[in-house]
Amino acid sequence: MDPQQRRTETGHHHPPGDNMTPVLVAFGVFIAIAALVMSPSSLVHQVPEGHVGAYWRGGALLNVITEPGFHLKLPFITHYEPVQVTLQTDQVRDIPCGTKGGVMVTFAKIEVVNRLRKDYVYDTLLNYGVDYDNAWIYDKIHHEINQFCSSHSLQQVYIDIFDQIDERMKEALQADCTRYAPGIEIISVRVTKPKIPASVRRNFEQMEEERTKVLIAIEKQRVAEKEAETKKIMAISEAEKNANVSKILMQQKLTEKDSSRREADIENQMYLDRQKSLADADYYRVLKEAEANKLKLTPEFLEVKFIDAIAHNTKMFFGDKVPNMVMDQRLLGNFLTHSTKEKSSDGDLKMATDT
User: Fold this and answer.
1) Residues ≥6 apart with Cβ < 8 Å to 304
2) What 8-state DSSP symbol labels residue 267?
3) How far apart are the C-alpha atoms of 124 and 52, rounded to whole Å?
4) How far apart are CA 186 and CA 176, in angstroms?
5) Which of 10, 191, 196, 221 has its CA 20 to 30 A from that of 238?
6) Is 157 exposed, middle or buried (0-12, 13-18, 19+ CB in 10 A)?
7) Residue 42 carries which DSSP code?
8) Number of helices (H) and strands (E), helices first, in the chain?
9) Considering the entire predicted model, what is its pTM?
10) How many other β-carbons are positioned within 10 Å of the β-carbon of residue 55?
11) How does pLDDT run across 67-107, given as a tens digit for each residue?
């Protein structure tokens, strides 16, 4: 056989494995159809809202994260788990711990509100598995609670700093999660009151009763002091009010008196001005009368007035003796001369009339 013929025969020769490939494909399709008929959920699965889908094939985590909805996977080969990425509350129950004084207490329930960030789902599952919260929440809570109790007394754990346990647990959990599992976010921690032995609890109840009595007494004293202070303030306020009222009334009276005084001063000044004006007028009148009299009271005028006065005051006296009368001889002479002239004038007038 020549080489050309050998090459031709070799080219038409098929290995036995190649003839089995279609058979295997057909068998796989048959298995898939059978699985779909017998168990549809092994092929089609649903990722609920608030979750993402994580997949393992042959025990190895696949770097595939699916969103909520319907998805396909290889039955019996690919394993699927929904992973919650919204807020979830893990409850850790019955946590025993011993205090610094050796008293055993039990925390009945501690709730941890946490969330796994969607961007860190693959890394978290790769390092800690689906039950990542067992390591970083459940076990960590036990550890932190025992650490806290061992360094504090029963009085501190049960009463004094109980209100700080929530925040301390949250800070401790978040610190370790940030360092080793950054995808876990601790939102809050709620710690219930621990259970303590009945005898110890009774002692605490008695202490609380006594403390309550003391607080009530202190509060009563504080209320009494506040009432006394209030009364004092009210008395001071009342006294200040009365003093202010008295001051205002006194100021009002002083103002009225001052107004009356000013009014009297004005009236007095007006009266003085009026009297002064009257006196000035009288003085001016008298002065003018004196000047007029000075010009008018000449000897002749006085003589005439004297004569008129004598003429109008003629009286008749009867008796043996006529009263003496002191008279100015000059005036009497003038009067007699004047009378003679008047009689002569009257006689001449009568004669002329008769004629």
Assistant:
1) none
2) H
3) 13
4) 11
5) 221
6) buried
7) G
8) 10, 8
9) 0.50
10) 19
11) 999 988 887 788 889 999 999 999 999 999 999 888 899 99
